[in-house]
Amino acid sequence: MNFSEVFKQSNQLCKVSPDGKYLATCVQYRLVVRDVSTLQILQLYTCLDQINHMDWSSDSLFILCAMYKRGLVQVWSLEQPDWHCKIDEGSIGLVSSRWSPDGRHILNTTEFHLRVTVWSLCTKAVSYIKYPKACQKGIDFSRDGCYMALAERRDCKDYVSVFVCDDWHLLRHFETETQDLAGLEWSPNGCVLAVWDSCLEYKVLLYSLDGRLLSTYSAYEWSLGVKSVTWSPSSQFLAIGSYDEKVRILNHITWKKIAQLDHPATINCTKAVVYKEVERRPAVGSDDLSLHNITIGTTLFNTQSKYEIRPLPVQIPVVKPDPDRANPKIGVSNLAFSSDSRFLATKNDNMASVVWVWDMQKMSLEAVLEQTSAVRCFQWDPRRPRLALCTANTKLYLWSPAGCVSVQVPTEGGFQVQSLSWHCSGDSLILLGKEQLCLCYMDIDQEDK
User: Fold this and answer.
1) 349: helix, strand or coil
2) Taking the domains of the chain in order of start, what are their residue ranges?
3) 83, 288, 408, 418: which has the highest count of C-beta atoms within 10 A?
4) Mean pLDDT, consecutive 10-residue segments, the chain of 449 residues?
5) CA nearest 397: which of 355, 437, 366?
6) Which fold has domain 136-261?
């Protein structure tokens, strides 16, 4: 692997363009656009205030920068740097801003979720959508960009409206059988809309495009319910992570449960490989303790780590949540399928330092990665079955069916990886620290072996 030099960034705002050519980063109120291959600065834009949110249009030609405190959105063009656009929501305020799939409309959600305003960059026309619901995931676009599903709340009831993105006309509007709708998500093939209830009621509903209820799934009652939901890229599986520390897999034909994935404190599964991160500090000789070395201190006191395979049975460290505090650290909060739908990675919040990898063909546990610190972020390579993760230290971790590796990020000043994201080619990773970022380039020869 090779690593780039370190660059500044603010608020973890750093995104590769959808076409994979550019890297946009925000530094306070500045937007910096670089060439991904050379990291040379191509454009530098100055916004009116500190940027809270940044996003690329689908065709990589425009970038929006939202300044929520001011109720402002500024849009910049890569092809015409002199062209600029400013959207001011005024006193009604702004809590979120996003592109429509065509990259020519911007959807702004106003404060208190009073309405969603749709702004057209081409015609300057404005449309208003009323009653958007304030929830975890209240808007979702189908993968082909044709439809938008919006969660609504009116007269103390939950509804879903499906809009056609070409001209924003209403295609379907139906009431959902939820007490307090928490989120919705289209299947990747755009045929089914999954809707789930708040954690107080275990309920997942599956609707067709025309608003018919296809199926309802509930695993249990009278206890905290759904915590996370995700589709497999193939649309064949719907994975539901729950507060009872289990993942339930529904199939796309009967919408019945075909598997239940447990996260036990003791692992006895003989098919699974348990990798444990082991740390060791390098031995320091008296010659190394010169004032010069301590001052420079680049790698002298860095802790090195590697993975060891642990013999079964393995005891997993579990943290008991405080029952008196809101949002208890328990249950499956993170679910991610590999791009080929072969593997599912999960994280159970009361085992914060552990990532579980499941084989979806065998519906069994494939590997367990036990880290020395809590896992902050994990993400699959978009092209290969390869998982990258970070734990807010100076290392990057990778898992593939071939094994596990721990890599020291060789930057000065102790760059701590808080989050990461893959380039769409899978050939590089963007590593984000608190106020810095660097790129990690994969060795192509190594991948093909």
Assistant:
1) helix
2) 136-261, 263-281+303-320+328-408
3) 418
4) 93 96 97 96 96 97 97 97 93 96 97 95 94 95 97 96 95 96 97 96 96 97 95 98 97 96 94 93 55 42 82 93 81 97 97 97 97 97 97 96 94 88 96 95 62
5) 355
6) Methylamine Dehydrogenase; Chain H (2.130.10)
